Amino acid sequence: MSVAGFLAYSALAAARDRSRTAAAIATERDVLTALFGVRRQLDWAGSNVNQTVKALNSGADAPHFAAALTDLRRAAQAVQRAADRITNRQEEQAA
To answer: N or C, which terminus of the chain has less Cβ within 10 Å?
Structure first.
């Protein structure tokens, strides 16, 4: 599930559940806001990767690119795992 899909799913699930407290909704809202921020940062990192690849294709040197790319992948996977945990928790609560 994409981050955008997750956010849409979460918003719809929250709107349907009238039994949740305001504190629980606020906490989820904070989490969703943080995920939006992380998504924006990952988009920026992706742009930087594209610029680096373009420079590499032009003969430039980027000695730490492989390590940075590994870190970026790790960060993206961590965000995906967090989104999956939240989605799974919401599905369990809806069941």
So the answer is: C
What are the pLDDT digits (tens) for 34-89? 888 888 888 889 899 999 999 999 999 999 999 999 988 888 888 888 888 877 77
**Per-residue 3-state assignment (H helix, E strand, C coil) for 4-73:** HHHHHHHHHHHHHCCCCCHHHHHHHHHHHHHHHHHHHHHHHHHHHHHHHHHHHHCCCCCCCHHHHHHHHH
Predicted structure pTM score: 0.60
SS3 81: helix
Type of residue numbered 36 = F
